[in-house]
Amino acid sequence: MSSMFGKPRATPSTTDRHLPSLLPECNVAILGCRGSGKSALTVKFLTKRFISEYDPNLEDTYMSEETVDQQPVLMKVMDTADQDVPVNCERYLNWANAFMVVYSIDNKRSFEGCHQYLDTISLHAKGIQHDYPILLLGNKLDLEQYRQVTKAEGVSLAAKYGCLFYEVSACLEFEAVQHVFHEAAREVRREMERNLPVRPLFITEERPFLHLAAPTAVASKHGLASCTLNTLSTVNYKEIPSVAQAKLVTVKSSRAQSKRKAPTLTLLKGFKIF
């Protein structure tokens, strides 16, 4: 990062630059017409400082280790250098997993230029069948008295493309700018969670266990009846339950034992645990 940007809040050291990061990453591309305030928002987020003048032809990517919802994340921000229309879009379309499209509320032309960027992202997402989080930002909220784009117009455009919408100012409070960048990270995390592969659920047909013959009473030589089974013989025999509701089977060797019911383990009908 150039010295004019100041020292970022979290930048990897020189010895760590070539080491792979173990943190989850969020790649955010900042798009918009020239003069919309893309670089000012980027620098505000990274340094908490506001700088009003930049070289519009410079493009770079910056990193910052952030904590979002008590979870660490490595945010990479590409400050693009497109002038007024999308040019060589592949460089950020194939890199980013979230986009911020910025316009200035005091410049109607910068707002109208957002349509081209939003169309470009939408066509790319449709082509690869993948949805990207998109945030539409109305910047320079401090210039309210010179507003040319109403908030309702911003909300309407965001709704058309399924974007989140915010109005911010790079020269006002840092927390508002930080919030939109962290919201981009949250949206990326939600999108990744939605695309996680679902583990297959194995459902088997319920089948009864082995049928046991009914016990028959046979007189013993002492005149007392005893319980015998054709295949199994046990004391205080309990019928083996079906798979729909399996109870723990216990064997009692004495009538003096507690007659409390055995604990039960209830399974969903038709499911088996592998």
UniProtKB/TrEMBL annotation:
Q: What enzyme category does the UniProt record give?
A: hydrolase
Record has Zinc as a keyword:
no
GTP-binding found in the keyword field: yes
Superkingdom as given in the UniProt entry: Eukaryota
UniProt keyword terms in alphabetical order: GTP-binding, Hydrolase, Nucleotide-binding
Spell out the InterPro entries in the cross-references: P-loop_NTPase, Ras-related_GTPase, Small_GTP-bd, Small_GTPase
EC nos: 3.6.5.2
- Gene3D superfamilies in alphabetical order: P-loop containing nucleotide triphosphate hydrolases (3.40.50.300)
Q: Which residues cross the membrane?
A: none
Q: Mind listing the GO molecular function terms for this protein? A: G protein activity; GTP binding
Catalytic activity line of the entry = GTP + H2O = GDP + phosphate + H(+)
Describe the family membership recorded for this protein in Swiss-Prot or TrEMBL.
Answer: Belongs to the small GTPase superfamily. Ras family.
State the protein's name. Ras-like protein family member 12
Taxonomic lineage:
Eukaryota, Metazoa, Chordata, Craniata, Vertebrata
